[in-house]
Amino acid sequence: MTTLLNTNLQQYRGKIDEIIKELHHLTVSIGNEELAKTVSDLRNRIKESFMFVIVGEVKAGKSSFINALLETEKEICKVSPAPCTDTIQQIMFDEKEHMQVINPYLKQLFYPIEILKEIAIVDTPGTNTIVEKHQEITEAFIPASDLIVFVFEAKNPYRQSAWDFFQFIHQEWRKKIVFVLQQKDLLSENDLAINLQGLTETAQKRGIIQPLVFSVSAKDELEGKHAESGFASLRTYIQENITGGKAPFLKLKNNIETGINVAERINKGILLRKAQFQHDTAFREEIKLTLQHQALKSNHQVDILLETLLGGYDKIIMNKERELEEGLSVFALVKRSFVSLFSKESSSKEWLTQFTKDLENDLNNSLRTRLGTGINDLAESIQQMAKMIDLKLKGSQTILKNDNDIFNDIAEKRSNILKELQDAFARFMNGTENFTGADIFEHGKSLTSNIVTGSGMAIIGVVLAAVTQVAVLDITGGLITTVGLLFAGITIGVNRSKVLTNYRNEVAKGRAKLKEELEEKLRLYIRTIKQKIDGNFVGFDAMISNEAEQIKVLSVQYEAIYQRLLMMKKDLL
């Protein structure tokens, strides 16, 4: 039977060692040095004895408690009126008594004491100094411990530093805890009963439903007063629940539980990364949708501007067409030709020249006036596109914070990328060169160099006004030149219908060209500004893409390890 138990033990150890090894690789891959050290230490201790870790306040009587528990005349742990345990002492079995110093905070003591064949005992400094000065216990012995023996001074089991450390042990690592009220010989039975009840209730309030509490007197035990000392019930608990061949398998179960704890911590971090990734992905999609929506609104402003502009164009052209039609009548032409022989009134040629000038003036005045209001509305719409993105950037939600236990480096990296994006976008909005259109419009460089310098987005209206006015002047100028040439050969015998038809064709061409060129330039400007705004997110997009891959890999690795841990836990039941 012993051989079979040993064989099973070795098989389980081998399997658990392999799983913990994979868990260690995972902690290394995520770059968490503290967690990697914890798992590495857990793996290194898998073959050690069942480990009791004794914790408690300074002067709670931990050293005396250990000496009494080991049932030896030798003072294993020094007892002094002043606090003397300033290092962690790991007490283990060996046929020969000796000591090994591991580091300034840890030494190993070896004794040929029978109980140490099945358990190892770790004596620690007081909880009110250990958290500040001796991180070795939190980084190594608590996660790798198999049982925590929390020693309280019987006279006062309520000190805050002790219960703060209890929270770390219970909440962070979910370790099994046995409570001991030491130095009970200093209290009356009534006072001891009150403090026993008080400790039990405090432990229950902090999450332990049925706390296991023992009251002992190391002094009585060491003086041979075994019936009064209270150690008998504690030893009975140890014998029935830990020693007698059960300890090695219990230790393996504890290793599995600690491995599950670490894996769940990693998964908690992964879930936070997923939540942040999902938020960032949704946020990025929201940015794109906002840009699309605002671009549509800006393009709608272009439609309104063109409709207003072309309405003014049509009105001028219609009025001037009626004037031309009347002026080209035979009677009117003959009258002008005859009158011009005997007076200073305009001839037909002079009248057409003036008609052409009036057409040019009327068109330019009407179009310029209508451009003013329309351009302001369009510029405001484009500015709003950038302002809305700026507001969304400033309001971006942070889920994975820089103090995250597992992925604080990822959180910090994301925070830096977001901060760089916010700063870069602020500079983008203030950079006049981003909105001048020198890289958008034909001859834009020479055009924008003549524009009065503005501040950031304020230049948008100036740029749009300059560009549209130049386009209008070019188109109306070309139209007037064509109309002038059309009128150059008009005589009394001219075909009136043909002239009107040609005139209508030319003004129609001018209208189409006006619509086409302005629409093309304005929509191109909107599209380019939208692309420039979106271009600020290149680094952010790269981060999202990398996160998607990293989260996928980590999730697969975690799930495989976690399921194997659960299976091993089930096998060891």
Overview features:
573 residues; alpha/beta; Rossmann fold; 2 domains; eight-stranded mixed β-sheet; 18 helices; 8 strands; 8% strand; rod-shaped
Give the integer mean of the pLDDT values: 87
Rounded to an integer, what's the Rg over CA atoms? Answer: 44 Å
The percentage helix is 55-70%
Give the termini distance in whole angstroms: 19 Å
Overall domain count: 2
| Counted beta strands | 8
Largest sheet: 8 strands, mixed
SS-derived structural category = alpha/beta
Shape: rod-shaped
Order of helices and strands: HHEHEEEEHHEHEHEHHHHHHHHHHH
Give the uncertain stretches in residue-range form. 338-345
Strand order of the largest sheet: 3-4-2-5-1-6-7-8
Q: How many DSSP helices?
A: 18
Strand content: 5-15%
Structure summary:
68% of the residues lie in helices and 8% in strands. The protein is α/β, with parallel strands linked by helices. It has an 8-stranded mixed sheet with strand order 3-4-2-5-1-6-7-8, sandwiched between helices.
Structure description:
68% of the residues lie in helices and 8% in strands. By secondary structure, the chain is of the alpha/beta class. It folds into two domains: 48-245, Rossmann fold; 272-548. Strands 3-4-2-5-1-6-7-8 form an eight-stranded mixed sheet, with helices on both faces. It is rod-shaped, with a radius of gyration of 44 Å. The relative contact order is 0.09. Residues 338-345 have low confidence and may be disordered.
